[in-house]
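Chapter review: from sequence to fold.
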Amino acid sequence: MASLGTIMLTGVSGTKYQFHIYAKEATFEKFGAVYAITSRFKMPDKNFSHSSPTYIGQTGDLTKRFYDHHREECFDRHGWNCICVHRDDNEASRLKKESDLIEAYQPVCNQQ
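The token string follows.
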């Protein structure tokens, strides 16, 4: 599935991370990534915008992460329609980025 574009998310450290945006129905190859659950919506000026991340996580295998996700009910309550993906096959690096981003955005579904 083709990316819908990219988005930059900035961690509390000031580090900027580029994420590729996919529709929530996207299927992925097996790879590690940090991901953000968001809502993409059309603005009156005809540009697309995104909500702040509803959830930020990481996984070593993106093919399995969204089947029966433990926070899916929260995602649904907040109207998710996109998965933003930052590819990273190094677990230590993913965990550091995930923490940096969660601290910056305080996603509602990470808080529960």
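Two observations follow directly from the output. The radius of gyration is 13 Å. The CA atoms of residues 54 and 104 lie 12 Å apart.
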